[in-house]
Design brief:
- This protein is an alpha+beta fold.
- 42% of the residues lie in helices and 12% in strands.
- The protein contains one helix and two strands.
- Strands 1-2 form a two-stranded antiparallel ribbon.
- Strand 1 and strand 2 form a beta hairpin.
Length: 69
């Protein structure tokens, strides 16, 4: 079924796992880094709101919209 025998691999309980190619490993690590940078960036931006430390409409400072109520 599926693919045949291509090179060495580790067989465990009838399942053979082959070593990944270098580009798979490098691409996976790169995408993992991008994901964590994005998660940490969003945590910095939205963390206080998610944790309940402030309301979403608070803390926007003055954006020049003339909101002098």
């Amino acid at each position: 079924m599926g693919g045949g025998h291509h090179g060495e691999g580790v067989t465990y309980k009838g399942v053979t796992l082959h070593k990944p190619k270098r580009w798979h490993t490098v691409t996976g690590k790169g995408l993992c880094a991008v994901m964590w940078f994005w998660v940490l960036y969003r945590a910095k931006q939205d963390g206080p709101v998610v944790l309940g430390w402030r309301h979403p409409w608070e803390g926007h400072d003055d954006h020049g919209h003339g909101n002098d109520h």
